[in-house]
Amino acid sequence: MFQILCSELQCTKTIAKNEVITNDTYSSRTANNFHNYFFSFNMERINNQFCIQNIPVTSLVEKYGAPIYVYDTDKISKQYKRLKQAFSGIDIQINYACKALNNISILNYFLQLQSGLDTVSIQEVELGLKVGFAPEKIIYTPNCVSYEELQQAIKLGVHINIDNLATLERFGHDYGSSVPVCIRINPHILAGGNSKISVGHIDSKFGISYYQLPHIERIVKAYGIHVNGLHMHTGSDILDIDVFLQGAEILFDTAKKFPNLDYVDFGSGFKVPYKPDDIETDIELLGEKMSKRFKEFCTEYGKNLTMMFEPGKFLVSEAGYFLAKVNVIKQTTSTVFAGLDTGLNHLIRPMFYDSYHTIFNVSKPEGLSRIYTVVGYICETDTFGWNRKIVELSEGDIVCFKNAGAYCMSMASNYNSRLLPAEVMIKDGVDHLIRKRETLDSVLANQILV
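Below the sequence we write its predicted structure tokens.
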């Protein structure tokens, strides 16, 4: 069993101390991937204003109000093409994990990029179909759903991915070889930047243990099931590419038991930078090593297969910005708080995952910095960042959160009866409203007074 846990905190600490990294995964090539943090987010300074695709950020707040989510399609496109180009000489299919950010305009943009779609619910399947994705470009990878939901997905014609022995047996009884199926394997690899997003370990609810492979084989043989794909996903925020290589070997060994595969899905979990001098998964090195090994395996297998990945955060995290207004500056005996017109109802990741989001003052690109603890307006602790050095804030200033593209708006709620913010997508230098700001009437639409 492989036991690997990459801590974002530990990785950042290592770099901060200038320690030598001895693991050969982190070559000098990885060091060269450290880049200017602001540049990596496609935000520029033009005429002393922060801009996205030449549009002043503050003008978006003036036009659409605050708080607001803004998405830069240039960054999405760059990440998508970077991933595609990293894997050469093989048939690779990228399926965007739409749980990260599921606005239909974002899905439509991925459709234009010729991406596939990774879905985890029947509603995400239906969203993808409504946007225009062909069923064969959608993979449905649920867990703990009802059998009736699985049947709905089968009727819609998408790729089915099963991670439960009991479900696999019932599926075989009802469909036999008439519907091809992918099987999700739990490789027993503990990987990810946080225990809540490590999903491939022995105690995880996800996947069928590779120790249960003989049981899978018995079910497949008994019902004549057509297994056309194998899948794994170990976690999110994975830095060490050896995690993917170790997981790949498990899938390759498993694949030898199934002679009619069309694809192998390696999940995702690529780490992106969150702060200055942060480090990220070396996609180029991963692509080089994985492509070489995958070609070798296809030769061993006797058939050229499709390699699949299902990135979400890697594609949209750095493309997203969350803009909020400073309501109050509150000084206590020990802390200076910057209180915003938003809270964990709009951006829960810092409280839920202890995640770090860079926060800066877009109203004042330059000036004296002070130390603030940035908090929200929710009636419980909702701290976005402790003791952050930010250019001096005043009431009415606009602050920006980076890495707001993934698992931010998609996890937002109406807690405290607060309304959901608007969303704006910037494409080809033009800003587009892609979700209207919520109103109380829309919140009450499905409630019934008795």
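The domain at 2-53+74-315 is CATH 3.20.20.10 (TIM Barrel).
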